[in-house]
């Protein structure tokens, strides 16, 4: 896996090499690592999941505004259930927030003229 990790040493935004202190393993399970990298040059942060198998190495990365500490903290929290999402929707619907947002003069999602 170390050879494949060498590919993650360059910032995808500015091509600056990550410092060793800017790369942190957030979680490690057998052949998978979740890593946080932050670029000292352009301040871009990336969460990347690196997986190794008999067929080779695969990486999925996403730009983020999370710090490595935030990523570790969030990783330890419970996930949202469908009931949580529906309860939140009901709450904001009762407050009229969806209607107010949809009617805002600053939001032009439905106005395609």
Question: What topology does this entry show?
Answer:
Blueprint: H1 2-5, E1 23-29, E2 32-38, E3 45-53, E4 56-64, H2 68-75, H3 82-95, H4 97-102
Antiparallel strand pairs: 1-2, 2-3, 3-4
Would you give an account of this structure?
With 113 residues, the chain is of the alpha+beta class. The protein folds into 2 domains: 2-75, no CATH class; 78-113, no CATH class. 28% of the residues lie in helices and 28% in strands. It has helices spanning 2-5, 68-75, 82-95, 97-102; strands at residues 23-29, 32-38, 45-53, 56-64. It has a 4-stranded antiparallel sheet with strand order 1-2-3-4, with helices on one face. Strand 2 and strand 3 (45-53) form a beta hairpin. The longest helix has 14 residues, at 82-95.
Outline: elongated
* Percent range for β-strand residues: 25-35%
Give the N-terminus to C-terminus distance in angstroms.
53 Å
**What is the rounded Rg?**
20 Å
Q: What is the overall pLDDT average?
A: 81
The helix content is: 25-40%
Tally the structural domains.
2
SS content category: alpha+beta
Q: Low-confidence segments, ≥5 residues, pLDDT <50?
A: none
Count the strands?
4
Please sum up the structure shown:
The protein is α+β, with helices and mostly antiparallel strands.
Main attributes of the structure:
single chain; alpha+beta; 2 domains; 4-stranded antiparallel beta sheet; elongated
